[in-house]
Amino acid sequence: MVLAFVMVNVEPGTEKEVAKAVTELKSVKDVYFVYGIYDLIAKIEAETDDELKDCIAEIRKLENVKSTLTMTVIWKA
Question: Per CATH, is 2-72 categorized as 3.40.630.90?
């Protein structure tokens, strides 16, 4: 199991629309609205590295997504 958090920066005013699209992706478990540099954080749980990469690529292709930053979890405390 691969766990990652993807911070997503979107066009202003499109947060809800993008969040809805992200939640519909297979490996996305949760989406959080946040304040700061990024607008959304998506929690991704994938079976393989390739599945994780595919999910991130899908997020990046969504309309109104400006940028992403991915943090892959290496271990849980």
Answer: no
